[in-house]
Specification:
The protein is built from eleven helices and 13 strands. By secondary structure, it is an alpha+beta fold. It folds into two domains: 121 residues, Rossmann fold (3-Layer(aba) Sandwich); 165 residues, Tumour Suppressor Smad4 (Sandwich). The strands form two sheets. Strands 5, 6, 7, 8, 9, 10, 11, 12 and 13 form a nine-stranded antiparallel β-sheet that branches. Helix 2 packs across helix 3 and helix 8 packs across helix 9. The protein is elongated and about 55 Å long.
Length: 322
């Protein structure tokens, strides 16, 4: 008999969706774990994986999903345990990326056993200020995963969220436009970005936003979550009026702007002028230097009917659904 564990974060934002998920999951025979404090989702997911669960499902937002992944990774059972998501948070970007539209769709995806092997981003970030909640939960405070994105710059520090219609059209650039509307005094982020083993930087200067993406909601062309590479976008600092002027959204969306640089790489090193906030799936980490890489197709994730297979323009290196 398949053993499924639902890890619910009641503080994620959509309490009604969370309560509905718990009721439906109980009817389907899931074990329920409810978090009470920061780090519980990491500990509960690790314990469930260690105790032999076949599937561990995050019920909450992007941060809850991240915590569940951290727990299963810490248990050393990414290869044996399927993961799922039931969207019940303020930010449900990753659920959208795997084609899960609502609570029922999330549970249906797990129960149907329709999975994909997707990449996992890893940030190595040793130094002061390590995540105490991760350490307390038995996780690695210096080695942090991300499924969606690692973001540095204005959006990581301002915490603003765009309207869903703009986010659907623009992806991460919607966050730039939204936060510029509210925080025009952002001083910029002095960055040096190196790809792979290269010593010479691929980008250096003052940025308003850095996105190291593992998901598809990036500007220009879609990213590929199954190819073993990170999709990197750097938005150079420019006058706010250049981003907010008439037609700016269309120019950025079409790649017709001198302020946007984009490249793909399996690993990179980012150095800032001083310690800055980086957001890993919504979880904040303050560092001056981080190194990011991918664990290619290392996570078995339940996907919904809305999941789009990797785009043809970028080889996935895989054979399709597992």
């Amino acid at each position: 008999m398949t053993r499924r564990v639902l890890v619910r974060n009641p503080e994620s934002g959509d309490r009604e969706a969370g309560e509905r998920a718990v009721a439906m999951a109980r009817e389907r025979g899931y074990e329920i774990r409810t978090t009470e404090e920061a780090g519980d989702e990491v500990r509960m997911a690790r314990e469930a994986a260690t105790d032999g669960a076949d599937a561990v499902v995050a019920c909450g937002g992007d941060g809850t999903v991240n915590g569940v992944v951290r727990g299963v990774l810490g248990a050393g059972r990414l290869d044996e345990v399927a993961l799922g998501v039931v969207p019940a948070g303020t930010g449900n970007d990753f659920a959208e990326n795997v084609g899960v539209a609502d609570v029922e769709a999330g549970l249906d995806a797990v129960d149907a056993g329709e999975t994909r092997r997707i990449d996992l981003g890893i940030v190595e970030a040793p130094g002061a200020g390590a995540d105490e909640s991760a350490a307390a939960a038995g996780g690695d405070a210096t080695r942090r995963p991300f499924l969606n994105s690692c973001v540095g710059g204005l959006t990581a520090e301002a915490g603003a969220r765009p309207e869903s219609s703009l986010k659907q059209r623009m992806g991460v650039l919607a966050y730039v436009l939204t936060t510029l509307q509210h925080t025009r005094s952002f001083e910029g982020l002095e960055l040096t970005v190196r790809a792979g083993e290269e010593r010479d930087p691929v980008w250096s200067g003052e940025a308003v936003l850095l996105v190291v993406g593992n998901a598809r909601n990036l500007p220009g062309q879609p990213a590929n979550v199954e190819d073993g590479e990170l999709d990197v976008v750097v938005v150079e600092r420019a006058p706010a009026t250049d981003f907010l002027a008439a037609g700016a959204v269309d120019r950025v969306f079409g790649g017709e702007t001198p302020y946007l640089s984009r490249f793909r790489t399996p690993s990179l090193v980012v150095e800032a002028g001083r310690p800055r906030q980086f957001s890993l799936d919504g979880e904040l980490l303050k560092r001056r230097r981080i190194a990011a890489t991918t664990l290619e197709r290392s996570v078995t994730f339940a996907v919904g009917e809305g999941y789009e297979p990797p785009p043809d323009w970028h080889p996935s290196g895989g054979d399709g659904p597992d």
